[in-house]
Automatic annotation (TrEMBL):
<protein>
    <submittedName>
        <fullName>Universal stress protein</fullName>
    </submittedName>
</protein>
<dbReference type="InterPro" id="IPR006015">
    <property type="entry name" value="Universal_stress_UspA"/>
</dbReference>
<feature type="domain" description="UspA">
    <location>
        <begin position="214"/>
        <end position="284"/>
    </location>
</feature>
<comment type="similarity">
    <text>Belongs to the universal stress protein A family.</text>
</comment>
<feature type="domain" description="UspA">
    <location>
        <begin position="1"/>
        <end position="157"/>
    </location>
</feature>
<dbReference type="InterPro" id="IPR006016">
    <property type="entry name" value="UspA"/>
</dbReference>
<dbReference type="Pfam" id="PF00582">
    <property type="entry name" value="Usp"/>
</dbReference>
Amino acid sequence: MTEQVMAAIDGSQFSAGVCDYAAWASLALEAPLTFLHVVDNHPQTAESDLSGNLVLGAREHLLEELSHLDEQRAKVAQEQGRLMLKAAKERAIEDGVSDPATRQRNGTLVETLTDLENDIRLLVIGKRGEGAHQASDHLGSNLERVVRTLHRPILMAPESFTRPERVMIAFDGSKTTRKGVEMLAKSPLFNGISCHVVIVGAETGDNRSQLEWALSTLREAGHEAEGEIRAGEVEETLRNYQQEHGIDLLVMGAYGHSRIRHLLVGSTTTTMLRRTSLPVLLLR
């Protein structure tokens, strides 16, 4: 199957942003767009526990009732999913995508995306899902698991869409971020977008050489490119640069070999990814 932009949607507040960023990416990449909704039909253990202290006959009756409720709940969830997919498809068509596809699967999101990984060119997913805590600095556990598991670029979408005009890549000279610069340079996703490269660290000869390589790679591909080496704490330094230059999309390596690694995937979710209101493209 042709590699495509795949957008994972649910009933969360981020679904509209996921739809619009996915449509933008599909058009820019000239890649097919597929909306995916996953129905998790895992049994509700709390409801099963209700029968624990009942006499045998009553317990069997209650288990039958619970089984019936589970079937009803699954049917409702599937119908809700179909309606979400229909609305997403209509929204993407309004955004200019000619024929977006829809898929509904049963299971867990991570398992489903793993099965479909070979079909994915870019995954678009919301910062949090409908089952996650809604605090603004909370990151959905599904997103963390997907980033750990999937070996594809992942675009974390905010609630609302803004067409990107200035992108910033957090660069550390690692293999992942060098590939990120090369991807920025050649990908049609970033045509006409100003590129900023930021190295957080000391002004050393090696860092200066790395920065010059990144800027020349981008400029040779026809991009407007600028960048800086800044000392300081990584998250604060990148956030300040982002605000000063009106950055509207961040690009980072999901697994690096420097302090930037701790921004994304580690034993705890870090401040940068949790607090940003911008879309973030995570590279593997």
